[in-house]
Amino acid sequence: MSAVLFDFSGTLFRIESAESWLRAALSHAGITLPEAELAATARALEEAGALPGGAFPARLPAEVAEVWEVRDESPDLHRAAYTGLSRRVPLPHPRVHEMLYDRHMAPAAWTPYPDAAEVLAGLRGRGIRVGVVSNIGWDLRPVFREHGLDAWIDAYVLSYEHGIRKPDPRLFERACAALGAEPRRTLMVGDDRRADGGAAALGCAVHFVDHLPVTERPAGLRPVLDLLDGVGPRP
Fold first, then answer.
1. Alpha helices of the chain — where are they, by DSSP H?
2. How far is CA 123 from CA 8, 34, 209, in A?
3. Which UniProt keywords apply (predicted)?
């Protein structure tokens, strides 16, 4: 392999909990809720699928369904989809829906998996070029910079910048081109078997990780180094 492509959410980083997300937005708005009400509202937002990078909607409302399918193709569509879902949940003030959306783009809302830096540095040490390929509606580069991972990323290929989303092989093709890598010598690492698995149609090898909370997946990325070194996954 000469290159490795990584998904963003659920692969290299994990979004904060719905309760932390709501608490941060309310604090920014200067609004305080009783703890029980805050927890119940966070659960309702999570069930609605309103937190980008969190759980998918338990039920997709008809008025959001059309934009949901193309949400990763532009910033406006992405915002419309997720604020449309959050508005299914009553909040103390209408402006909090937009504040919630803005909060999820903040670097503080994201935490890298514990072994992300180790694995990215290990790839650089092996002379492997690294790209990030994400279905997303906003610029995630500041998240990488804030957490000190940007130095190990050679290219970012984001769906909203190309109007193409995974599993479309063209997005992976553009990532390989950005890295100067042949697909057959490229490994795609992601947590979504449908979206990230689309790289296989281009001839890339694919490796999946589990989309778990950061504390529950301390070493999920380390097998990538083992794969490149030609040894079995670490225990």
1. 18-29, 35-48, 62-69, 75-86, 95-104, 116-125, 141-146, 159-162, 169-179, 223-229
2. 17, 47, 17
3. Hydrolase
Gap between the Cα atoms of 78 and 71, Å rounded: 4
Q: Which residue has the tokens 């970012």?
A: 156
Q: What is the pTM assigned to this prediction?
A: 0.94
CA angle 223, 224, 228 (to 5 degrees): 115
Distance CA(150)–CA(120), nearest Å, equals 10
Which residue reads 């934009």 in tokens?
67
**Rounded to an integer, what distance in angstroms lies between the CA atom of residue 41 and that of residue 31?**
14
Tokens representing residue 116 in the block: 């992300």
Cα diameter, the chain? 55
Phi and psi at 187, nearest 5°, equal -110, 130
Write down all domains in the chain, each with its CATH number in brackets.
3-14+110-229 (3.40.50.1000), 16-108 (no CATH)
* Token pair 């998904």: residue: 7
